[in-house]
Structures are given as structure tokens and as C-alpha cells.
Design brief:
five-stranded mixed sheet; alpha+beta; 33% strand; two-stranded antiparallel ribbon; Sulfate adenylyltransferase
């Protein structure tokens, strides 16, 4: 199972807030520049371990859709799936890897759903 990490050291708690939004059902998508190699191989149906910056598993996700679209096409619907307003999403993603994101720049958007926790194994008789 692949690991899908949210957060990094020095993020001011952002990663944990994103994980809490995912677990509460308020965040069902995430995006990054399309050239970013991290998670570039994700496909619909992939099972992912939702992990925090410490590597602790916090849940399980299933990828439902991976799309590439220009940054200028981001709208309120996508922002809501990311768990923020459109203004917050544009501010959050408007600068990456030391430079401003151009409106025509391709972005990778990964949509996912929270998978139910695995049932504990029954004790053997």
C-alpha cells in the first residue's frame, strides 16, 4: 500500500489540520504542480495509507480520480473538495517550489475517499 503524506516539519500544524479535515469528510482532494514527482504515479483505485509528518498512519484512502488541469480552472467546487475557499486555495497554491504558479500551469488534482477502517481480526478458537 502506498503512503500519502500530509505535513512536514515546520508546517505550523497545517498537515495535521488537513488530516483532520480528511477524517471529518471536509477534504476529498489535494493538488500540486503536475511536474511534482511525488505521487505522480497515483491511479484511480489505489489504496493509500494516510500518514502524518511523523510517518504515523492516520487512516486509509482510496483514489477516485486523478486529473491534470490548468491552475486558472480552479473553481469553488474544487476548493470545497480541498476543504477551503477558492481564495484560500489560490493563496495556498499560488507559490510553489520558490516561484509563482502561472495561470496556465498544469496542476495535478488527486480526488480520494476515506476508506473504512479494517475490522479487527477475530480471535481464533
Amino acid at each position: 500500500m502506498k503512503r500519502f503524506r500530509f505535513g512536514w516539519y515546520g508546517d505550523g500544524g497545517l498537515g495535521d489540520r488537513m488530516i483532520q479535515a480528511i477524517l471529518a469528510g471536509r477534504k476529498t482532494a489535494t493538488s500540486c504542480p503536475a511536474y511534482d514527482p511525488e505521487d505522480a504515479d497515483l491511479q484511480p483505485g489505489d489504496d493509500l495509507q494516510l500518514v502524518d509528518k511523523h510517518g504515523a498512519q492516520r487512516g486509509r484512502l482510496v483514489v477516485t480520480l486523478v486529473e491534470v488541469r490548468p491552475f486558472s480552472s480552479f473553481d469553488e467546487d474544487l476548493a470545497a473538495r480541498e476543504g477551503v475557499t477558492l481564495a484560500e486555495l489560490r493563496e495556498k497554491l499560488g507559490f510553489a517550489n520558490g516561484r509563482a504558479i502561472r495561470p496556465d500551469e498544469e496542476m495535478r488534482v488527486v480526488h480520494f475517499r476515506l476508506a473504512p477502517a479494517a475490522a479487527p481480526a477475530a480471535p481464533e478458537p
